[in-house]
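Long-time lurker, first post. I've been practising inverse folding by hand and with some scripts of my own, and I keep getting stuck on stretches where the structure tokens seem ambiguous. Below is the full token string for one chain I'm working on. Before anyone asks, I'm not after the true native sequence, just a reasonable design that respects the backbone. If someone could post their per-position residues I'd love to compare against what I wrote down in my notebook.
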């Protein structure tokens, strides 16, 4: 499955995205000259600016002048950010690009899967995909069941063996996804028979 963005140069945008796709989140200032630490969601993290200017939720524009990888973040110089004080104010700022500026993926973008129905491999309804998260250990799917609170499962081949695009359904393996407990050979409460005298 294709889970990440491909790196190609896209068209530049001059307005707030109509169909925003999250490409990164600012994690704070870096140094004294206004650089920012950014968590990038592009396939190659330094390609954060390869699709054109980025925008925040309010429509503010951020043009990537330079980007370099440093450990698990990208250090980015934005044309619109002149000093450390400005960079510090951007902490937690989400950066978007319009969906139309991205290249067509081999299979799909994660954002395209939000809203899909979720079923087990045996056809039982689980709920609906409401979001994707990456807390550092891989992509996580958030699912809203018909009742109760949302559940999160790993977005892996084992947990999500198939996406049925024709039906608009994500197929999950409940044991690998952690939605069901594995069955044991013995029923609950079973104990070893007492050793008898020969």
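-- Answer (accepted) --
I ran through it position by position. Result:
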């Amino acid at each position: 499955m294709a889970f990440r963005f491909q790196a190609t140069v896209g068209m530049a945008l001059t307005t707030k995205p109509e169909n925003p796709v999250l490409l990164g989140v600012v994690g704070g200032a870096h140094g004294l000259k206004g650089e920012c630490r950014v968590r990038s969601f592009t396939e190659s993290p330094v390609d954060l600016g390869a699709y054109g200017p980025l925008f925040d939720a309010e429509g503010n524009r951020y043009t990537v002048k330079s980007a370099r990888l440093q450990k698990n973040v990208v250090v980015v110089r934005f044309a619109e950010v002149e000093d450390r004080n400005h960079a510090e104010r951007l902490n937690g700022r989400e950066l978007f690009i319009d969906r139309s500026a991205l290249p067509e993926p081999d299979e799909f973008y994660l954002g395209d899967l939000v809203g899909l129905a979720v079923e087990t491999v045996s056809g039982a309804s689980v709920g609906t995909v409401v979001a994707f998260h990456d807390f550092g250990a891989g992509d996580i799917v958030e699912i809203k069941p018909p009742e109760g609170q949302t559940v999160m499962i790993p977005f892996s081949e084992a947990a999500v063996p198939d996406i049925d695009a024709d039906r608009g359904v994500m197929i999950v393996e409940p044991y690998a996804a952690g939605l069901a407990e594995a069955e044991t050979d013995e029923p609950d409460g079973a104990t070893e028979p007492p050793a008898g005298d020969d």
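A couple of notes from the structure itself: The longest strand covers residues 20-30. The CA atoms of residues 133 and 140 lie 5 Å apart. Happy to go over any region you disagree with.
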